[in-house]
Amino acid sequence: MIVIETFEGVKAKVQMLRTKILPVTFLAAIAVMIGACGGGTSSNATVTGNVDPNETAATVNGKVIKMEDVERAVKAQAQGQESKLSPLELAGARLQVLQSLIEQEVMFQKAEKEGVLPKDEDVNAEINKQKSDSRLSQEEFDKQMTQAGLTEASLKDQVRRSMAIKALVDKVTGRIETPKENEIEAFFKGNPELFVKKRGVRLAAIVIDPSNSGQGDLTTDAASAQLKMQEVENKVQQPGSDFAALAREYSEDPSKFQGGDLGFFSEDELRQSYPQLVAGFMNPQFTVGRITNAVPINGKAYIFKLQERVEKEENLTLESPSVKPQIIEMLGNNRKQLLAASYQAIAMNEAKIENFLAKKVVDNPNELSGARPAPVANANTATVVTNTNTSAAPANVANAPAANTPVNAAKPAANTAKPAASANGSANANAHK
Question: What is the pLDDT of residue 51?
Answer without folding.
Answer: 65
